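Design review, sub-item: ligand-bound model
Attendees: FS, YL, KQ
YL presented the inputs for the 6-phosphogluconic acid complex:
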Amino acid sequence: MRAIRRYPDAEAVSRAAAQDLVEVARAAIVARGRFCVALSGGSTPRRMYEILSEAPRWARLEWDRVEFFWGDERAVGPDHADSNYGAAAAALLRPLGIAPERVHRIQGELPDPEDAAGRYQDELARVFASPADGLPPIFDLVLLGMGPDGHTASLFPYSQALTERTRWVVGHHVARLGKARITMTPPILNRAAEVRLLVTGPDKAGVLREVLLGPREPERLPAQLVAPAAGRLVWMLDRAAAAELPADRPV
Ligand code: 6PG
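KQ shared the predicted structure:
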């Protein structure tokens, strides 16, 4: 199931996404005793993480029942300015004092991104207590963003990772970046119970219209691959990003 939620600006998207995460987390903790979330990288979720770091002031949530993962990582160490882990640690994990054993980061610093991917799949299998060669585990919530080229996580247009059918995580060289990335794959992203795609800013309006309303071309528009089989997908958009979507009818 897909839903589109529109907000006036990026701050409103961040506030709504933070509130939404707390609600999904509470429901997961009641139902399963813990909440497993895959965080997104990039700049869009940073304000949301900041708002969540203030959560103890506005929301009751047992943070010691939350397991943190990442949907993707750059091939850098945890202290590097480009690290997705590093950004979330600074804006959210450290301010909340999250215990290290609940933080499962991708080892972007490893020389071989495929090795980092394999180790991350093992870590996922360990924490979810599911066989590493079986079906991917089910995240309670996966947060994603989208680039102006239609990529999501580190699933870039025309990249090998797009056609992965069994592995949960892959490491690959992204030609257009000239760099390696480690990313969760469509099989695990689409097993999630809840997926949120946060997209803000005018530079994404055109590609967003193509992704949502255009012909199906996932090779060129990888965000089209995000379609949870049994879960719920919610696009959370600001007015600028939604500018080219029909205002008067559901998308
Ligand atoms: C990353 C992300 C990536 C990001 C988009 C959007 O590691 O960069 O996982 O998929 O979500 O590139 O990035 P912005 O939020 O910075 O526009």
